[in-house]
Write a structure and sequence with these properties.
Blueprint (H helix, E strand, L loop, with lengths): L3 E7 L4 E7 L1 H11 L3 H18 L8 E8 L5 E7 L3 E6 L16 H5 L2 E8 L6 E6 L6 H12 L4 E8 L5 E11 L5 H13 L3 H7 L3 H9 L5 E6 L2 E2 L5 H11 L1 H10 L3 E5 L6 E5 H9 L1
Parallel strand pairs: 5-11
Antiparallel strand pairs: 1-2, 1-10, 2-9, 3-4, 3-6, 4-5, 6-7, 8-9, 12-13
The chain binds zinc ion (ZN).
Length: 291
């Protein structure tokens, strides 16, 4: 099944709803980085939210970067998405193992720890937009909800979930965001709030209900939702030799050759996002600095 996000309007256009199935994306992230279960859940939830946020970018060249940095054993997580809905991400410590928490779930909060969430949006302006908020629960969904209220002044309901099966495969990874639009009535806000305090498992909803439309109806409390669009985010790294060239050039000629001398004649640059290794011999390095 492809990754997909469905965007809806509910309550006669007063509320925006987005629902994502990102099972494939989170499986790919797990395989690429050899993630442990708890890191799959933590990074997976962040990748799903980054995908949803990328849907709001207006131009293909726009880009969003999310960094979650806590004092837990994961260290930091970085995810990026662009206007083409290409999403990528990594965790600085991919193999964290922790006992399940007191309710028998993967202990994402402990793995992430206390810290902050940072969002950088490059939407083609002179300076990128930078938003920042502290982590409130370190379970990721609540942290994003808090970020939206405090940093972007958009109160919303957020749920994110990653289910891992007994055979350690990603069984389901999903998320949603419900955002009251500026002319939303207090009555509708109350309806949404009361529903969303009771629903705590988005993966459960996705498994139980027949399709995403039913999920959107349940979480918004409106049976007459209007489907606006369906889009297909991809887990894909956009690194290239050209981009890595810049990293070598930034080292400076002397330093680049020094590293090559110490490393059997090669400089190797590893892309954090996809683990691809780019290898430069001295001839290639020489050419870079001739330009
Ligand atoms: Zn890459």
């Amino acid at each position: 099944m492809e990754n997909r996000i469905r965007k809806y309007l509910a309550h006669n256009g007063m509320v925006s709803v987005m629902v994502m199935d990102g099972t494939k994306m989170v499986s790919e992230a797990r395989n690429t980085h050899n993630l442990s279960n708890v890191v799959t859940a933590a990074l997976g939830r962040t990748l799903i939210m980054t995908s949803i946020m990328s849907c709001k970018l207006k131009e293909k060249g726009n880009r969003i970067t999310v960094q979650i940095k806590g004092d837990g054993p994961i260290g930091s997580m970085v995810t990026c998405g662009d206007g083409n809905l290409k999403i990528k991400g990594y965790a600085s410590t991919p193999n964290v193992e922790l006992p399940l928490n007191s309710i028998g779930k993967l202990d994402v909060a402990k793995a992430v720890g206390k810290g902050y969430l940072n969002v950088i949006k490059d939407i083609g302006l002179k300076e990128p937009y930078i938003g920042y908020s502290n982590l409130v629960s370190s379970e990721i969904a609540e942290d994003f909800a808090y970020y939206f209220v405090t940093s972007e002044q958009t109160p919303c309901a957020v749920a994110l979930g990653v289910n891992i099966a007994k055979d350690n495969k990603v069984d389901m990874a999903a998320g949603y965001i419900i955002e009251p639009l500026p002319d939303c009535s207090d009555e509708v806000i109350t309806i949404i709030e009361s529903i969303n305090t009771n629903i705590f498992s988005v993966t459960g909803l996705m498994s139980d209900l027949a399709d995403m439309d039913d999920v959107a109806k349940t979480i918004s409390g409106d049976n007459h939702i209007e489907l606006l669009e369906e889009v297909y985010p991809q887990y894909e790294c956009d690194c290239s030799l050209e981009r890595i060239d810049k990293t070598i050039i930034a080292l400076g000629k002397e330093e680049a050759f020094k590293i090559a001398d110490e490393n059997q004649g090669f400089v190797e640059i590893n892309c954090n996002f996809c683990n691809k290794t780019y290898q430069y011999n001295k001839e290639m390095i020489g050419k870079l600095f001739q330009k």
